[in-house]
Structures are given as structure tokens and as C-alpha cells.
Amino acid sequence: AQKVTQAQTEISVVEKEDVTLDCVYETRDTTYYLFWYKQPPSGELVFLIRRNSFDEQNEISGRYSWNFQKSTSSFNFTITASQVVDSAVYFCALRANAGKSTFGDGTTLTVKP
Amino acid sequence: EPEVTQTPSHQVTQMGQEVILRCVPISNHLYFYWYRQILGQKVEFLVSFYNNEISEKSEIFDDQFSVERPDGSNFTLKIRSTKLEDSAMYFCASAGALSSYEQYFGPGTRLTVT
Asked: Does any CB of chain A come closer than 8 Å to the CB of residue B111?
């Protein structure tokens, strides 16, 4: 069985602060993929990043960075110099091959001006 | 860039009515999925579909639900007799054969049952 835990239900920061969203996962599959999605108030799921289980390199994309640690089954997401537009619900998800995606409960990020 | 589309964007229906949610997956994709998100909650898997049959379904996907790929382009989710608790956002997703890990989500259909 797959499980994704996002322990932080809500986070509130002031603009320009850095913020890290935690994600811990469980799976018995040896090949799997991890994802982060952003869900703005409009409701759509915006794909942010995919990582496969063989690639533990951290990634940076602009103000976003991801830290994948297989040893601790974690895939954390950091936003540097947060902006009001970053306010949204963020979901971490796990998927094995062509199977279903299992989502975490989501973290609601509020960035105040 | 190819994308998954869903219609309608918002559907309001009365309890007990049948509703069909429509999705047009990316054209060369072979794997299709429906997910549900009750307001304020997480996204939950409903069903996956491959080679014209259901490959996996969750406990949520009971006899009230059915899926169909009636032609080469559409993928539909039917709810036979809607209940108040079916009110949610329904997301369709598709994935290709060569890159089956790439799952593309549609924009969602918000279903409101009154």
C-alpha cells in the first residue's frame, strides 16, 4: 500500500520568507515517482515537479527547490523568498509505474504581504 | 502543448439524477484515470482504465459509478443516481505508453448535487 503524509496542514509566512513544505511517503515498490502539485483557489492541479526513485539529485527551478532523500523517504519542497502569489494548497503525490497516484492531505500555504 | 480537457467545468444536478462527466485525454495516451476531491480535502483515486477495461478501482467507486471510452477520444464517468456526498471536484488524467509515469491532469469538473 502507498501512503503520503504531509504533516503540515497550514503554514503562514510573511512575504520574502523562505518556507519548506514536508512530504514523507511509504511504498513497497522499488520504482516509483514523486510529484508536487500546486492547487490555486481556482481549483486546477498545477504540476510542479516529478522525481523518480532512482534520481536523488536535488533540483532547483527559480525560487523552488526540492530535496529528495530516499533514506528518510522524504521529498521536501522549499520556496525561497516567498511571494503572495505562492499562496495555494500544495500536494505531494506518489505513483508507481502506470498505476494510480496517491496524494497527501495537502498543505495550505498563506503568504502575507 | 497537448492537454487533457474536461466538460463541463461546473455541473449542478439534483439528488437522484444521473450525471455524465466528460474528458478528452491526450490523443496518444493509453491509460486513463478519474480522481475526486471533496471540497477542502485531498485528491482521491477513483478508477484507472486501460485497454478498454478497468485496471484498478478504489472502494469509493461503487456500483453507482461507471466509466466508458465510447469512441477514440472521450473518456466518461457516469454517476447513476447522485447523492449529496458526490459533490466534489472530479479530475480526469491520462498517461502515455512510453512515458507512463507522466500523468497529465485535466482542469476538473466541479459537481454540485442539491
From this structure: no
